[in-house]
Specification:
The protein contains 7 helices and 15 strands. The protein is an alpha/beta fold. It has 3 domains: about 90 residues, Elongation Factor Tu (Ef-tu), domain 3 (Beta Barrel); about 110 residues, 3-Layer(aba) Sandwich (Rossmann fold); about 45 residues, Ribbon (Dihydroorotate dehydrogenase B (pyrk subunit), domain 3). Helix 4 links the parallel strand 8 and strand 9. Helix 5 runs parallel beside helix 6. Bound molecules: FE2/S2 (inorganic) cluster.
Length: about 260
């Protein structure tokens, strides 16, 4: 079920120079959401900016009835969010989209996240660990001050490996190099990926070559977020191999690597 609600802000704090973490009291959404889904957030009480912003769920706590959003300040809408105070309300629609899935057969999995794409992988890692999987968390960023949520992955008990482009933290290089190493030394049953397009393309290529199933969350510009505006349509391959179009907001944002076409 999709809810359109006013939710109470419990916390809203800066966690990195351009990133904020907002905790909302939203028991109905927390009870139904799965990792990989997102909310459309109304960032202003006025009509400007008009469009709601899509923000993925970084943590889902059904027991406490809370959800955590991690957002990057990229424009006027997200800038307005930064000054919202605990105790005030914010309108959201969700949970939206199709999230990540996992199978009881999978034993060892890897999540590969880059930039703000790391945010939804926290909730996923939490669920994968609860389901008894061994989880490699491969995290990449341009530099130390842009690396999201690494402490959460460590606290959760994932095997964390980090790469930064400038070498300011972890390995110098790309997160895909870490994935290559893990693929070469470990039998992975599934890979989950969320991040910038070049990273996603490289992850899909590596996993296809290694014959490891992979799910990717596609980050696309969204307008309505509910399947009405066609602003997020992407070309995919159907199970029969024919080409077709799907809406990232409604049919995704999570797709299997065999579906996506770059
Ligand atoms: Fe409008 Fe997907 S954002 S159809």
């Amino acid at each position: 079920m999709v809810y359109s609600l006013k939710t109470r802000i419990l916390e809203n704090k800066k966690i990195l120079p351009d990133f904020y973490e907002m905790v909302l009291s939203a028991p109905a959404i927390a009870a139904e959401a799965v990792p990989g889904q997102f909310l459309m957030v109304k960032t202003s009480p006025t009509l400007v900016p008009f469009l709601r912003r899509p923000i993925s769920l970084s943590r889902i706590n059904a027991e406490e009835g809370t959800i955590t959003l991690v957002y990057q300040v990229v424009g006027s809408g997200t800038k307005l969010m930064t000054v919202m105070t605990p105790g005030s309300e914010i309108e959201v629609v969700g949970p939206l989209g199709k999230g990540f899935t996992w199978s009881v057969k999978d034993k060892v999995v890897a999540i590969v996240g880059g930039g703000c794409g790391i945010a939804p992988l926290v909730a996923l890692t939490e669920e994968l660990l609860k389901a008894g999987k061994e989880v490699y968390a491969l995290l990449g960023a341009q530099s130390r001050d842009k690396l999201l949520s690494d402490k959460y992955f460590i606290e959760l008990g994932a095997k964390v490996m980090i790469a930064t482009d400038d070498g300011s933290f972890g390995r110098k290089g790309f997160v895909t190099q870490l994935l290559e190493e893990v693929i070469n030394t470990t039998r992975l049953d599934q890979v989950y990926c969320c991040g910038p397009l070049p990273m996603t393309k490289a992850v899909v290529k590596l996993t296809k070559e290694a014959l490891v199933p992979c799910q990717v969350s596609l980050e696309e510009r969204m307008g309505c977020g509910v399947g009405a505006c066609l602003g997020c349509v992407c070309k995919v391959r159907s199970e029969e191999g024919s080409l077709t179009y799907k809406k990232v907001c409604h049919d995704g944002p999570v797709f299997t690597s065999s579906e996506v076409i770059f």
